[in-house]
Amino acid sequence: MDKSKFLSRIDLFQKLSTEELMQIEPIAPMNTIKKGTIIASPQHGGKLLYLVKSGMVRLYKLSEGGKELTVDLLRVGHIFGEIGSFTISSENMYAEAWEDCVICTINKPQFEQLMREKPELALHFIEIISTRLKEVEEMMEHMAYGSVRKRLLYLLHKLSEKFGSGFSMGENEDTDRKWIELEVKLTHQELASMMGSIRETVTEQLTELAAEGIVSKEGQRKPLRVHPERLKMAWDACR
DNA sequence: ACATTAAAGGGGT
DNA sequence: ACCCCTTTAATGT
Predict the structure, then answer these.
(1) A189: which nucleotide lies closest, measuring CA to C1'?
(2) Which residues of A48-81 are buried (b: 16+ CB within 10 A; e: fewer)?
(3) Which residue intervals define the domain HTH crp-type in the entry (predicted)?
(4) Range of the domain at A159
């Protein structure tokens, strides 16, 4: 089994609450980052903690062949980076501005002072790390042994939890209300990179799922929609 | 890997 | 603002 598949995961980080953000923001320099900019990389090594204030950040690793493995997509309130031995993500991680972003940075002295002044925050950081561990284990379990279809179903489920929004197509509320729209711009390539598969396979599988009424899309570069109930049925059916 | 198609961008009117 | 053309990115096989 390809080792990189084990690294795929989603929703790694728990968000900070708005109150906690208020506590941190005053001491953290804020930067506007343009879409596509690399915010942090293994080379930087600049021991900083980053906090997403707006926009979306993509975390990824590079595999041997230089292929990108998307590890997570972060939004407002998510944190990433490392300071000294305090590491929120694994090492060798790249962070890219997926959209135009506003990012706050915290250095080690600031971070340590903050932890002393606000023990609740320190506790929350511990929770975040624990949650991450749990998520990693759960994702490993699902990505390690399942078929591509099963992994894709699971990924779609996680994505709809994280990015899903209620959605209605029109008059027929009873059936239409059941669709969830994923509020992220995800290409087949992206999905593949999150589940340790290849683009072609994802395309193929998505076409199947669309035929089964589990997913739908209006067109290229349009948001993907999933039908949670049918998704669950399909999931139950393939074990 | 190649072919197709849809969408974004740029220039001119 | 609108139309048309070029270019690029996404998808399909």
Answers:
(1) C10
(2) bbbbbbebbbbbbbeeeeeeebbbbbbbbbbbbb
(3) 146-230
(4) 146-237
The number of folded domains in chain A is 2
Domain boundary among A126, A142, A158: A142
A29 and A135 fall within a common domain: yes
The set of strand C positions with any atom below 7 Å of a protein CB reads 9-13
Q: Quick check: A101 and A56 in contact, CB under 8 A?
A: yes
Structure-token pair, residue A235? 């999931």
CB atoms within 10 A of CB A216: 15
DSSP letter assigned to residue A28: S
Q: Which of A94, A35, A92 is nearest to A60 (CA)?
A: A94
Residues 170-189 of A with CB under 7 A from strand C: 187-189
Q: Around Cβ A236, how many Cβ atoms within 10 Å?
A: 9
Q: Integer distance in angstroms from CA A196 to C1' B4?
A: 26
pLDDT in tens, A120-140: 888 888 888 888 788 878 888
Residue-wise pLDDT tens digits, A103-123 = 989 998 988 998 898 888 888
The radius of gyration of chain A from alpha carbons, rounded to an integer in Å, stands at 19
